[in-house]
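Sequence in, structure out. Go.
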Amino acid sequence: MAHGRVFLDLGLVLVAALAGGLLAHALRQPLIVGYVLAGIAVGPFTPGPTVADPRSFELFAEIGVVLLMFSIGIEFSLDELLRVRRAALVGGPLGIATILLLTLPVGRALGWPVVQTAVVGAALSVASTMVVLKFLLERGELHAPHGQVTLGVTLFEDLAVVAMTVLLPALGPTVAHRPAALLRGLLVAALILVPTLWMARRVVPPLWTRIARAQSEELFLLVAIAVAIGTAALTAGLGLSLALGAFLAGLVISESEFAHEALARILPIRDVFVAVFFVSLGMLMRPAVVLAQWATVLALVSVIVAGKCVVWTGVLRLLGLRLRTAALVGLALTQIGEFSYILAAVGRAEGILSGQVYDAILAASLVSILVNAAIFRRTPGWIERLLARLEPAGPVRDAAPPPPGHVLVCGFGRIGRAVVDALEAFGIPYAVVDLDPDATGAARRRGAHAVYGNAADELILDRAGAASARLAVVAVPDAEVAARATRTLRRLRPDLPILVRAHHEHHRDRLVAAGAAEVVQPEIEAALTIVRHSLDHLGIDHHRGREYLARVRAGAPSTGQRGASSGADEERRRG
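Output:
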Protein backbone atom coordinates (compact mmCIF):
# COMPACT_ATOMS: atom_id res chain seq x y z
CA MET A 1 0.00 0.00 0.00
CA ALA A 2 2.89 2.31 0.83
CA HIS A 3 4.42 1.64 -2.58
CA GLY A 4 1.09 2.45 -4.22
CA ARG A 5 1.02 5.81 -2.43
CA VAL A 6 4.55 6.58 -3.64
CA PHE A 7 3.48 5.98 -7.23
CA LEU A 8 0.43 8.20 -6.76
CA ASP A 9 2.70 10.90 -5.35
CA LEU A 10 5.14 10.46 -8.23
CA GLY A 11 2.31 10.87 -10.73
CA LEU A 12 1.18 14.04 -8.94
CA VAL A 13 4.74 15.41 -8.95
CA LEU A 14 5.21 14.76 -12.68
CA VAL A 15 1.82 16.31 -13.56
CA ALA A 16 2.66 19.32 -11.39
CA ALA A 17 6.09 19.63 -13.08
CA LEU A 18 4.41 19.56 -16.50
CA ALA A 19 1.86 22.20 -15.48
CA GLY A 20 4.56 24.41 -13.94
CA GLY A 21 6.78 24.01 -16.98
CA LEU A 22 3.96 24.95 -19.35
CA LEU A 23 3.12 27.99 -17.22
CA ALA A 24 6.75 29.13 -17.17
CA HIS A 25 7.01 28.63 -20.94
CA ALA A 26 3.83 30.64 -21.52
CA LEU A 27 5.20 33.45 -19.35
CA ARG A 28 8.63 33.19 -21.09
CA GLN A 29 10.41 32.34 -17.83
CA PRO A 30 13.01 29.62 -17.15
CA LEU A 31 11.43 26.22 -16.57
CA ILE A 32 12.99 25.88 -13.13
CA VAL A 33 10.77 28.73 -11.92
CA GLY A 34 7.70 26.76 -12.99
CA TYR A 35 9.02 23.56 -11.38
CA VAL A 36 9.64 25.20 -8.00
CA LEU A 37 6.24 26.92 -8.08
CA ALA A 38 4.66 23.55 -8.93
CA GLY A 39 6.39 22.03 -5.91
CA ILE A 40 4.98 24.78 -3.68
CA ALA A 41 1.49 24.07 -5.08
CA VAL A 42 1.58 20.33 -4.28
CA GLY A 43 3.57 20.69 -1.06
CA PRO A 44 2.15 20.13 2.42
CA PHE A 45 2.15 23.84 3.26
CA THR A 46 -0.41 24.94 0.64
CA PRO A 47 -4.06 23.93 0.07
CA GLY A 48 -5.09 21.63 -2.77
CA PRO A 49 -3.66 18.29 -3.98
CA THR A 50 -0.79 17.36 -1.70
CA VAL A 51 2.06 14.87 -1.82
CA ALA A 52 1.79 12.64 1.23
CA ASP A 53 5.51 12.44 2.04
CA PRO A 54 7.82 14.94 0.28
CA ARG A 55 10.83 13.23 1.90
CA SER A 56 10.15 10.10 -0.14
CA PHE A 57 11.37 11.96 -3.22
CA GLU A 58 14.82 12.72 -1.81
CA LEU A 59 16.29 9.76 -3.74
CA PHE A 60 14.81 11.05 -7.02
CA ALA A 61 16.14 14.51 -6.22
CA GLU A 62 19.62 13.13 -5.53
CA ILE A 63 19.59 11.29 -8.86
CA GLY A 64 18.63 14.59 -10.50
CA VAL A 65 21.61 16.32 -8.87
CA VAL A 66 23.93 13.51 -9.94
CA LEU A 67 22.79 13.61 -13.57
CA LEU A 68 22.90 17.42 -13.64
CA MET A 69 26.47 17.55 -12.33
CA PHE A 70 27.41 14.66 -14.64
CA SER A 71 26.21 16.59 -17.70
CA ILE A 72 28.03 19.71 -16.49
CA GLY A 73 31.22 17.66 -16.28
CA ILE A 74 30.76 16.39 -19.84
CA GLU A 75 30.14 19.90 -21.18
CA PHE A 76 32.88 21.53 -19.14
CA SER A 77 35.43 23.10 -21.49
CA LEU A 78 38.87 23.96 -20.18
CA ASP A 79 39.60 25.65 -23.52
CA GLU A 80 36.64 28.04 -23.10
CA LEU A 81 37.75 28.77 -19.55
CA LEU A 82 41.29 29.56 -20.71
CA ARG A 83 40.01 31.76 -23.55
CA VAL A 84 38.92 34.33 -20.97
CA ARG A 85 41.32 33.09 -18.29
CA ARG A 86 42.06 36.47 -16.77
CA ALA A 87 38.40 37.29 -16.19
CA ALA A 88 37.52 33.73 -15.11
CA LEU A 89 40.58 32.54 -13.17
CA VAL A 90 41.41 35.89 -11.55
CA GLY A 91 38.04 37.64 -11.56
CA GLY A 92 36.12 34.48 -10.59
CA PRO A 93 37.65 33.89 -7.15
CA LEU A 94 37.90 37.63 -6.52
CA GLY A 95 34.20 38.12 -7.30
CA ILE A 96 33.07 35.13 -5.19
CA ALA A 97 35.23 36.23 -2.25
CA THR A 98 33.87 39.80 -2.46
CA ILE A 99 30.27 38.56 -2.47
CA LEU A 100 31.03 36.39 0.56
CA LEU A 101 32.40 39.45 2.36
CA LEU A 102 29.36 41.46 1.26
CA THR A 103 27.08 38.85 2.85
CA LEU A 104 28.79 39.02 6.27
CA PRO A 105 27.27 42.35 7.42
CA VAL A 106 23.86 41.21 6.15
CA GLY A 107 24.13 38.02 8.21
CA ARG A 108 25.28 39.98 11.25
CA ALA A 109 22.32 42.34 10.93
CA LEU A 110 19.97 39.34 10.73
CA GLY A 111 21.60 37.67 13.74
CA TRP A 112 23.00 34.65 11.90
CA PRO A 113 26.04 32.66 13.05
CA VAL A 114 29.19 33.31 11.01
CA VAL A 115 29.28 29.78 9.55
CA GLN A 116 25.66 29.99 8.42
CA THR A 117 26.32 33.41 6.88
CA ALA A 118 29.33 32.00 5.00
CA VAL A 119 27.22 29.18 3.54
CA VAL A 120 24.51 31.67 2.53
CA GLY A 121 27.20 33.81 0.89
CA ALA A 122 28.48 30.78 -1.00
CA ALA A 123 24.97 30.02 -2.26
CA LEU A 124 24.42 33.64 -3.33
CA SER A 125 27.79 33.89 -5.10
CA VAL A 126 27.06 31.38 -7.88
CA ALA A 127 24.66 32.13 -10.73
CA SER A 128 22.45 29.67 -12.58
CA THR A 129 24.32 28.40 -15.64
CA MET A 130 21.05 27.24 -17.24
CA VAL A 131 19.43 30.67 -16.87
CA VAL A 132 22.53 32.53 -18.12
CA LEU A 133 22.97 30.34 -21.20
CA LYS A 134 19.25 30.49 -22.01
CA PHE A 135 19.18 34.29 -21.94
CA LEU A 136 22.46 34.65 -23.89
CA LEU A 137 21.19 32.27 -26.58
CA GLU A 138 17.87 34.16 -26.79
CA ARG A 139 19.75 37.45 -27.24
CA GLY A 140 22.15 35.85 -29.75
CA GLU A 141 25.10 37.07 -27.66
CA LEU A 142 26.80 33.86 -26.57
CA HIS A 143 29.84 34.72 -28.71
CA ALA A 144 29.79 38.46 -27.95
CA PRO A 145 32.58 39.73 -25.64
CA HIS A 146 30.30 39.89 -22.59
CA GLY A 147 28.82 36.49 -23.52
CA GLN A 148 32.26 34.85 -23.59
CA VAL A 149 33.28 36.46 -20.28
CA THR A 150 29.98 35.45 -18.67
CA LEU A 151 30.47 31.88 -19.90
CA GLY A 152 34.01 31.82 -18.49
CA VAL A 153 32.88 33.13 -15.10
CA THR A 154 30.05 30.59 -14.87
CA LEU A 155 32.46 27.78 -15.77
CA PHE A 156 34.68 28.87 -12.89
CA GLU A 157 31.62 29.01 -10.66
CA ASP A 158 30.83 25.40 -11.66
CA LEU A 159 34.27 24.41 -10.37
CA ALA A 160 33.74 26.50 -7.25
CA VAL A 161 30.44 24.70 -6.55
CA VAL A 162 32.23 21.35 -6.74
CA ALA A 163 34.90 22.59 -4.31
CA MET A 164 32.32 24.06 -1.93
CA THR A 165 30.24 20.86 -1.83
CA VAL A 166 33.43 19.08 -0.78
CA LEU A 167 34.23 21.61 1.95
CA LEU A 168 30.74 22.31 3.37
CA PRO A 169 30.48 19.09 5.44
CA ALA A 170 33.63 20.15 7.31
CA LEU A 171 31.74 23.25 8.55
CA GLY A 172 28.93 21.25 10.20
CA PRO A 173 28.16 21.85 13.89
CA THR A 174 29.15 18.28 14.84
CA VAL A 175 32.67 18.64 13.40
CA ALA A 176 35.18 19.07 16.23
CA HIS A 177 38.28 20.22 14.37
CA ARG A 178 37.20 22.16 11.31
CA PRO A 179 40.65 23.04 9.89
CA ALA A 180 41.66 19.38 10.02
CA ALA A 181 38.34 18.36 8.45
CA LEU A 182 38.79 20.92 5.66
CA LEU A 183 42.31 19.65 4.98
CA ARG A 184 41.10 16.07 4.98
CA GLY A 185 38.35 16.93 2.48
CA LEU A 186 40.83 18.58 0.15
CA LEU A 187 43.30 15.67 0.39
CA VAL A 188 40.62 13.06 -0.27
CA ALA A 189 39.34 15.10 -3.24
CA ALA A 190 42.88 15.29 -4.64
CA LEU A 191 43.38 11.54 -4.12
CA ILE A 192 40.20 10.91 -6.10
CA LEU A 193 40.92 13.50 -8.78
CA VAL A 194 44.37 12.19 -9.76
CA PRO A 195 43.33 8.59 -10.58
CA THR A 196 40.13 9.91 -12.15
CA LEU A 197 42.08 12.02 -14.63
CA TRP A 198 44.37 9.06 -15.32
CA MET A 199 41.31 6.91 -16.07
CA ALA A 200 39.98 9.66 -18.32
CA ARG A 201 43.01 9.38 -20.57
CA ARG A 202 43.94 5.68 -20.32
CA VAL A 203 40.95 3.53 -19.41
CA VAL A 204 37.74 5.21 -20.54
CA PRO A 205 38.49 5.83 -24.28
CA PRO A 206 39.13 2.13 -25.12
CA LEU A 207 36.12 1.10 -22.99
CA TRP A 208 33.86 3.51 -24.87
CA THR A 209 35.26 2.27 -28.17
CA ARG A 210 34.32 -1.32 -27.31
CA ILE A 211 30.83 -0.25 -26.24
CA ALA A 212 30.38 1.80 -29.41
CA ARG A 213 31.42 -1.15 -31.59
CA ALA A 214 28.61 -3.18 -30.07
CA GLN A 215 26.24 -0.66 -31.70
CA SER A 216 23.77 -1.04 -28.85
CA GLU A 217 22.01 2.11 -27.72
CA GLU A 218 20.85 0.34 -24.55
CA LEU A 219 24.41 -0.61 -23.55
CA PHE A 220 25.67 2.88 -24.37
CA LEU A 221 23.07 4.51 -22.13
CA LEU A 222 23.56 1.92 -19.38
CA VAL A 223 27.32 2.49 -19.29
CA ALA A 224 26.87 6.28 -19.13
CA ILE A 225 24.44 6.04 -16.21
CA ALA A 226 26.56 3.41 -14.45
CA VAL A 227 29.65 5.63 -14.70
CA ALA A 228 27.72 8.64 -13.37
CA ILE A 229 25.97 6.98 -10.45
CA GLY A 230 28.84 4.58 -9.69
CA THR A 231 31.41 7.37 -9.39
CA ALA A 232 29.01 9.47 -7.31
CA ALA A 233 28.43 6.52 -4.98
CA LEU A 234 32.18 6.02 -4.67
CA THR A 235 32.82 9.60 -3.59
CA ALA A 236 29.86 9.49 -1.20
CA GLY A 237 31.27 6.32 0.34
CA LEU A 238 34.56 8.13 0.93
CA GLY A 239 32.78 10.90 2.81
CA LEU A 240 32.60 13.42 -0.06
CA SER A 241 29.58 14.69 -1.97
CA LEU A 242 27.59 12.93 -4.66
CA ALA A 243 27.91 16.09 -6.76
CA LEU A 244 31.72 15.85 -6.80
CA GLY A 245 31.66 12.25 -8.01
CA ALA A 246 29.10 13.01 -10.70
CA PHE A 247 31.10 15.99 -11.95
CA LEU A 248 34.32 13.92 -12.06
CA ALA A 249 32.50 11.15 -13.94
CA GLY A 250 31.36 13.66 -16.54
CA LEU A 251 34.87 15.05 -16.73
CA VAL A 252 36.18 11.54 -17.41
CA ILE A 253 33.74 10.99 -20.27
CA SER A 254 34.39 14.46 -21.70
CA GLU A 255 37.87 13.24 -22.73
CA SER A 256 36.28 10.61 -24.97
CA GLU A 257 35.21 11.16 -28.57
CA PHE A 258 31.85 9.66 -27.57
CA ALA A 259 31.10 12.34 -24.99
CA HIS A 260 28.45 14.13 -27.04
CA GLU A 261 26.66 10.88 -27.81
CA ALA A 262 26.62 9.99 -24.10
CA LEU A 263 25.26 13.44 -23.28
CA ALA A 264 22.56 13.17 -25.96
CA ARG A 265 21.44 9.80 -24.55
CA ILE A 266 21.33 10.92 -20.96
CA LEU A 267 19.78 14.39 -21.39
CA PRO A 268 16.11 13.26 -21.57
CA ILE A 269 16.51 11.16 -18.41
CA ARG A 270 18.41 13.97 -16.70
CA ASP A 271 15.71 16.51 -17.51
CA VAL A 272 13.00 14.33 -15.91
CA PHE A 273 14.95 13.82 -12.69
CA VAL A 274 16.05 17.46 -12.58
CA ALA A 275 12.39 18.49 -12.86
CA VAL A 276 11.59 16.20 -9.91
CA PHE A 277 14.52 17.75 -8.02
CA PHE A 278 13.21 21.29 -8.44
CA VAL A 279 9.63 20.24 -7.62
CA SER A 280 10.89 18.54 -4.45
CA LEU A 281 12.67 21.78 -3.49
CA GLY A 282 9.42 23.68 -3.89
CA MET A 283 7.57 21.14 -1.73
CA LEU A 284 9.92 21.94 1.16
CA MET A 285 9.27 25.70 0.94
CA ARG A 286 6.82 27.12 3.46
CA PRO A 287 5.13 30.18 1.92
CA ALA A 288 3.82 31.40 5.28
CA VAL A 289 7.34 31.37 6.73
CA VAL A 290 8.69 33.19 3.67
CA LEU A 291 6.03 35.89 3.98
CA ALA A 292 6.77 36.20 7.69
CA GLN A 293 10.45 36.83 6.96
CA TRP A 294 9.98 39.08 3.94
CA ALA A 295 12.74 41.38 5.22
CA THR A 296 15.25 38.51 5.03
CA VAL A 297 14.17 37.64 1.48
CA LEU A 298 14.41 41.30 0.48
CA ALA A 299 17.92 41.53 1.97
CA LEU A 300 19.06 38.43 0.05
CA VAL A 301 17.52 39.68 -3.20
CA SER A 302 19.31 43.00 -2.72
CA VAL A 303 22.65 41.20 -2.37
CA ILE A 304 21.93 39.02 -5.41
CA VAL A 305 20.70 41.77 -7.74
CA ALA A 306 22.32 45.02 -6.66
CA GLY A 307 25.33 43.64 -4.80
CA LYS A 308 26.41 41.08 -7.40
CA CYS A 309 25.92 43.54 -10.27
CA VAL A 310 28.16 46.13 -8.59
CA VAL A 311 30.73 43.54 -7.49
CA TRP A 312 31.13 41.83 -10.87
CA THR A 313 31.11 45.11 -12.78
CA GLY A 314 33.78 46.50 -10.47
CA VAL A 315 35.94 43.35 -10.53
CA LEU A 316 35.89 43.10 -14.32
CA ARG A 317 36.57 46.82 -14.74
CA LEU A 318 39.52 46.37 -12.37
CA LEU A 319 40.80 43.66 -14.73
CA GLY A 320 40.65 46.07 -17.68
CA LEU A 321 37.37 45.16 -19.40
CA ARG A 322 35.31 47.91 -21.00
CA LEU A 323 32.51 49.32 -18.88
CA ARG A 324 29.75 48.05 -21.17
CA THR A 325 31.15 44.51 -21.24
CA ALA A 326 31.69 44.47 -17.46
CA ALA A 327 28.21 45.89 -16.78
CA LEU A 328 26.47 43.35 -19.05
CA VAL A 329 28.33 40.50 -17.34
CA GLY A 330 27.28 41.97 -14.00
CA LEU A 331 23.65 42.09 -15.12
CA ALA A 332 23.81 38.51 -16.42
CA LEU A 333 24.98 37.20 -13.04
CA THR A 334 22.27 38.90 -10.96
CA GLN A 335 20.44 35.66 -10.17
CA ILE A 336 20.96 32.31 -8.44
CA GLY A 337 19.55 28.93 -9.36
CA GLU A 338 20.29 25.22 -9.45
CA PHE A 339 23.79 25.30 -7.94
CA SER A 340 22.66 27.56 -5.13
CA TYR A 341 19.90 25.02 -4.41
CA ILE A 342 22.49 22.26 -4.26
CA LEU A 343 24.72 24.21 -1.87
CA ALA A 344 21.73 25.19 0.28
CA ALA A 345 20.55 21.55 0.38
CA VAL A 346 24.03 20.39 1.46
CA GLY A 347 24.15 23.11 4.12
CA ARG A 348 20.75 22.11 5.44
CA ALA A 349 21.63 18.40 5.47
CA GLU A 350 24.78 19.15 7.46
CA GLY A 351 22.82 21.19 9.99
CA ILE A 352 24.46 24.49 9.02
CA LEU A 353 21.40 26.22 7.56
CA SER A 354 18.14 26.50 9.45
CA GLY A 355 14.88 25.67 7.69
CA GLN A 356 13.84 29.32 7.64
CA VAL A 357 17.07 30.46 5.99
CA TYR A 358 16.77 27.63 3.48
CA ASP A 359 13.25 28.80 2.57
CA ALA A 360 14.51 32.37 2.24
CA ILE A 361 17.25 31.30 -0.19
CA LEU A 362 14.74 29.46 -2.41
CA ALA A 363 12.36 32.43 -2.40
CA ALA A 364 15.18 34.87 -3.14
CA SER A 365 16.28 32.66 -6.03
CA LEU A 366 12.84 32.76 -7.66
CA VAL A 367 12.60 36.52 -7.28
CA SER A 368 16.14 37.05 -8.60
CA ILE A 369 15.47 35.00 -11.75
CA LEU A 370 12.34 37.03 -12.49
CA VAL A 371 14.21 40.31 -11.93
CA ASN A 372 17.14 39.06 -14.04
CA ALA A 373 14.78 38.25 -16.90
CA ALA A 374 13.45 41.82 -16.79
CA ILE A 375 16.82 43.60 -16.68
CA PHE A 376 19.05 41.29 -18.73
CA ARG A 377 16.96 39.26 -21.16
CA ARG A 378 15.55 42.51 -22.51
CA THR A 379 17.97 45.20 -21.42
CA PRO A 380 15.79 48.30 -20.82
CA GLY A 381 16.49 51.40 -22.87
CA TRP A 382 17.41 53.42 -19.78
CA ILE A 383 20.29 51.01 -19.06
CA GLU A 384 21.56 51.39 -22.63
CA ARG A 385 21.37 55.17 -22.35
CA LEU A 386 23.11 55.12 -18.96
CA LEU A 387 25.97 53.01 -20.32
CA ALA A 388 26.26 55.32 -23.32
CA ARG A 389 26.63 58.32 -20.98
CA LEU A 390 29.10 56.59 -18.68
CA GLU A 391 31.19 55.29 -21.59
CA PRO A 392 30.77 57.61 -24.57
CA ALA A 393 31.81 56.40 -27.97
CA GLY A 394 34.59 58.98 -28.16
CA PRO A 395 36.19 60.12 -31.40
CA VAL A 396 35.42 57.97 -34.40
CA ARG A 397 38.39 56.69 -36.36
CA ASP A 398 37.25 55.67 -39.81
CA ALA A 399 39.18 54.27 -42.75
CA ALA A 400 37.30 56.58 -45.14
CA PRO A 401 33.86 58.22 -45.32
CA PRO A 402 31.29 55.97 -46.99
CA PRO A 403 30.41 57.00 -50.54
CA PRO A 404 26.80 57.94 -51.28
CA GLY A 405 24.63 54.94 -52.08
CA HIS A 406 26.34 52.62 -49.58
CA VAL A 407 24.65 49.96 -47.43
CA LEU A 408 24.43 50.67 -43.70
CA VAL A 409 24.93 47.46 -41.66
CA CYS A 410 23.94 47.76 -38.00
CA GLY A 411 25.48 44.87 -36.10
CA PHE A 412 28.67 43.11 -37.16
CA GLY A 413 27.99 39.70 -35.67
CA ARG A 414 27.48 36.43 -37.54
CA ILE A 415 24.58 37.74 -39.66
CA GLY A 416 26.14 41.15 -40.26
CA ARG A 417 29.42 39.63 -41.41
CA ALA A 418 27.61 37.34 -43.85
CA VAL A 419 25.89 40.41 -45.34
CA VAL A 420 29.23 42.25 -45.58
CA ASP A 421 30.87 39.25 -47.28
CA ALA A 422 28.19 39.37 -49.98
CA LEU A 423 28.52 43.15 -50.39
CA GLU A 424 32.28 42.84 -50.83
CA ALA A 425 31.83 40.03 -53.35
CA PHE A 426 29.72 42.36 -55.53
CA GLY A 427 31.81 45.46 -54.90
CA ILE A 428 29.08 47.33 -53.00
CA PRO A 429 30.33 49.92 -50.47
CA TYR A 430 29.08 49.67 -46.91
CA ALA A 431 29.39 51.12 -43.41
CA VAL A 432 29.21 49.25 -40.10
CA VAL A 433 27.79 50.28 -36.72
CA ASP A 434 28.38 48.11 -33.65
CA LEU A 435 28.65 48.53 -29.90
CA ASP A 436 31.44 45.93 -29.68
CA PRO A 437 34.88 47.55 -30.13
CA ASP A 438 36.33 44.23 -31.34
CA ALA A 439 33.68 44.07 -34.06
CA THR A 440 34.28 47.63 -35.28
CA GLY A 441 38.02 46.96 -35.18
CA ALA A 442 37.54 43.88 -37.37
CA ALA A 443 35.44 45.92 -39.80
CA ARG A 444 38.11 48.65 -40.02
CA ARG A 445 40.76 46.04 -40.76
CA ARG A 446 38.68 45.13 -43.80
CA GLY A 447 38.87 48.76 -44.90
CA ALA A 448 35.28 49.58 -43.94
CA HIS A 449 33.83 52.77 -42.54
CA ALA A 450 33.04 51.54 -39.01
CA VAL A 451 31.43 53.51 -36.17
CA TYR A 452 31.53 52.37 -32.57
CA GLY A 453 28.24 53.12 -30.82
CA ASN A 454 24.61 52.21 -30.24
CA ALA A 455 22.75 51.64 -33.52
CA ALA A 456 19.66 53.27 -31.99
CA ASP A 457 21.47 56.58 -31.45
CA GLU A 458 20.76 59.27 -34.07
CA LEU A 459 24.25 60.78 -33.84
CA ILE A 460 25.90 57.39 -34.39
CA LEU A 461 23.71 56.65 -37.43
CA ASP A 462 24.41 60.09 -38.82
CA ARG A 463 28.18 59.45 -38.53
CA ALA A 464 27.68 56.18 -40.38
CA GLY A 465 26.13 58.04 -43.31
CA ALA A 466 22.47 57.14 -42.87
CA ALA A 467 21.47 60.26 -44.82
CA SER A 468 23.13 58.98 -48.01
CA ALA A 469 22.60 55.21 -47.65
CA ARG A 470 20.48 53.34 -50.16
CA LEU A 471 19.76 50.38 -47.87
CA ALA A 472 19.98 49.62 -44.13
CA VAL A 473 20.37 46.14 -42.66
CA VAL A 474 19.65 45.93 -38.92
CA ALA A 475 21.26 42.72 -37.64
CA VAL A 476 21.70 43.53 -33.93
CA PRO A 477 20.66 40.57 -31.72
CA ASP A 478 18.68 42.54 -29.12
CA ALA A 479 15.09 43.00 -30.32
CA GLU A 480 14.61 46.18 -28.27
CA VAL A 481 17.72 47.82 -29.75
CA ALA A 482 16.69 46.65 -33.24
CA ALA A 483 13.26 48.26 -32.87
CA ARG A 484 14.73 51.55 -31.61
CA ALA A 485 17.36 51.56 -34.38
CA THR A 486 14.62 50.99 -36.97
CA ARG A 487 12.51 53.85 -35.59
CA THR A 488 15.51 56.18 -35.62
CA LEU A 489 16.43 55.22 -39.19
CA ARG A 490 12.84 55.69 -40.33
CA ARG A 491 12.75 59.13 -38.69
CA LEU A 492 16.02 60.13 -40.39
CA ARG A 493 15.11 58.63 -43.77
CA PRO A 494 11.40 57.99 -44.45
CA ASP A 495 12.31 56.58 -47.89
CA LEU A 496 15.10 54.23 -46.78
CA PRO A 497 14.53 50.46 -47.25
CA ILE A 498 15.26 48.79 -43.90
CA LEU A 499 15.78 45.03 -43.56
CA VAL A 500 15.68 43.71 -39.98
CA ARG A 501 16.67 40.34 -38.51
CA ALA A 502 14.32 38.94 -35.82
CA HIS A 503 14.81 35.97 -33.49
CA HIS A 504 11.16 35.27 -32.75
CA GLU A 505 7.85 35.59 -34.54
CA HIS A 506 6.33 37.84 -31.86
CA HIS A 507 8.95 40.52 -32.66
CA ARG A 508 7.76 40.88 -36.25
CA ASP A 509 4.73 43.15 -35.74
CA ARG A 510 6.71 45.44 -33.46
CA LEU A 511 9.56 45.78 -35.99
CA VAL A 512 7.14 46.37 -38.87
CA ALA A 513 5.40 49.06 -36.81
CA ALA A 514 8.82 50.63 -36.15
CA GLY A 515 9.32 51.03 -39.91
CA ALA A 516 10.97 47.85 -41.19
CA ALA A 517 10.39 47.22 -44.89
CA GLU A 518 11.15 43.54 -44.38
CA VAL A 519 11.61 41.38 -41.28
CA VAL A 520 13.64 38.21 -41.72
CA GLN A 521 13.52 35.35 -39.26
CA PRO A 522 16.52 33.05 -39.88
CA GLU A 523 14.70 29.89 -38.78
CA ILE A 524 11.90 30.47 -41.32
CA GLU A 525 14.38 31.21 -44.10
CA ALA A 526 16.36 28.08 -43.26
CA ALA A 527 13.18 25.98 -43.30
CA LEU A 528 12.12 27.35 -46.70
CA THR A 529 15.58 26.70 -48.13
CA ILE A 530 15.46 23.08 -46.93
CA VAL A 531 11.97 22.70 -48.41
CA ARG A 532 13.18 24.11 -51.75
CA HIS A 533 16.12 21.70 -51.91
CA SER A 534 13.91 18.80 -50.81
CA LEU A 535 11.42 19.50 -53.61
CA ASP A 536 14.27 19.68 -56.13
CA HIS A 537 15.65 16.32 -54.97
CA LEU A 538 12.19 14.76 -55.12
CA GLY A 539 11.79 15.84 -58.73
CA ILE A 540 8.91 18.25 -58.13
CA ASP A 541 8.40 20.58 -61.09
CA HIS A 542 10.64 23.61 -60.67
CA HIS A 543 7.92 26.23 -61.22
CA ARG A 544 5.33 24.40 -59.09
CA GLY A 545 7.82 24.24 -56.23
CA ARG A 546 8.61 27.95 -56.49
CA GLU A 547 4.95 28.85 -56.61
CA TYR A 548 4.34 26.80 -53.48
CA LEU A 549 7.22 28.52 -51.70
CA ALA A 550 5.91 31.90 -52.80
CA ARG A 551 2.51 31.12 -51.27
CA VAL A 552 4.12 29.94 -48.03
CA ARG A 553 6.43 32.94 -47.91
CA ALA A 554 3.50 35.30 -48.45
CA GLY A 555 1.93 34.07 -45.23
CA ALA A 556 5.11 33.41 -43.26
CA PRO A 557 6.22 35.71 -40.42
CA SER A 558 9.48 36.43 -42.25
CA THR A 559 7.78 38.23 -45.12
CA GLY A 560 7.50 41.60 -43.41
CA GLN A 561 5.29 43.88 -45.51
CA ARG A 562 5.67 42.06 -48.77
CA GLY A 563 2.76 40.53 -50.56
CA ALA A 564 2.47 37.24 -52.37
CA SER A 565 3.44 38.71 -55.71
CA SER A 566 6.73 40.08 -54.44
CA GLY A 567 7.48 36.72 -52.82
CA ALA A 568 6.72 34.93 -56.09
CA ASP A 569 8.92 37.34 -58.04
CA GLU A 570 11.76 36.76 -55.62
CA GLU A 571 11.49 32.98 -55.86
CA ARG A 572 11.47 33.17 -59.67
CA ARG A 573 14.60 35.32 -59.54
CA ARG A 574 16.21 32.73 -57.27
CA GLY A 575 15.14 30.00 -59.60
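Check: The longest helix spans residues 85-110. The two ends are 68 Å apart (CA to CA).
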